[in-house]
Automatic annotation (TrEMBL):
The keyword Transmembrane does not apply. One of its GO terms (molecular function) is cobalamin binding. Belongs to the eukaryotic cobalamin transport proteins family. GO terms for cellular component: extracellular space. InterPro entries: Cbl-bd_prot (IPR002157), Cobalamin_Transport (IPR051588), Transcobalamin-like_C (IPR027954). The keyword Ion transport applies. Keywords: Cobalt, Cobalt transport, Ion transport, Secreted, Signal, Transport. It comes from Brachypodius melanocephalos (black-headed bulbul). This is IF factor. Pfam families: Cobalamin_bind, DUF4430. Residues 120-192 form the Transcobalamin-like C-terminal domain. The lineage of its organism: Eukaryota, Metazoa, Chordata, Craniata, Vertebrata. Gene3D superfamilies: 1.50.10.20, 2.170.130.30. It is found in: Secreted. GO terms for biological process: cobalamin transport; cobalt ion transport.
Length: 198
């Protein structure tokens, strides 16, 4: 993407490893990695899996280098500290507009609501408040994965690998680059959960 993002924030670690490891194959055009690395430096990684994939790239290595490591000869050096993420505004609470849409399977539906949550809340917390206020409409189910919380069902409509369906989360029409357990909506933001296929 034009802002340096490769796929989404979770795919960045492996993408940077691959691009660094295969740099010589880009000749005569060099890969300018500065913009991609600036995306990584600016992000506050929370999931251990994402951290494990991005750390090798930050030290100029890839998983391929692990086979040749001499652990006995390795000396630990202080790591470069990533910049702290900016504070999430000064409001004590924010309002988030949240909608769920299914135009794919069974009886189609579209519901919207606005919820007030503490500033810095995750999208998962927004969904929990919406479900508390209107469980008939905004109930949902999740499962925990190594990448964090995965939404499996909203309004009784479950994602299915057989049907190749899932719940996609969008902001301003663009897919979120983080999962519901880490993405923090801004005040006035409209988050859409759309039942879709891949």
């Amino acid at each position: 993407k034009g802002n340096g993002m490769i796929g989404d924030i979770y795919s960045m670690g492996l993408a940077l490893q691959v691009l660094e490891a295969t740099r010589k194959f880009y000749a005569p055009r060099n890969w300018d990695c500065a913009q991609a690395f600036s995306v990584v430096y600016a992000h506050d990684y929370q999931h251990p899996m994402a951290i494990a994939q991005v750390l090798p790239a930050l030290v100029g290595k890839s998983y391929l280098d692990a086979a040749g490591l001499d652990c006995a000869a390795t000396k630990m050096s202080p790591s470069r500290q990533l910049p702290l993420s900016p504070r999430q505004g000064t409001h004590t609470s924010i309002q988030v507009h949240y909608s769920i849409t299914n135009k794919l399977q069974g009886k189609h539906f579209h519901y919207s609501t606005s919820v007030t949550v503490p500033s810095g809340s995750t999208l998962l917390q927004v969904m929990e408040v919406a479900a508390e206020e209107n469980p008939q409409t905004f109930s949902f189910q999740t499962e925990q994965t190594s990448w964090g919380t995965y939404v499996t069902s909203i309004h009784g409509l479950a994602a299915s690998t057989d049907d190749r369906t899932y719940w996609q989360f969008l902001s301003a029409g663009n897919a979120l680059e983080e999962g519901v357990g880490t993405y923090k909506p801004q005040d006035g933001e409209h988050i859409q959960a759309v039942f879709t296929t891949y």
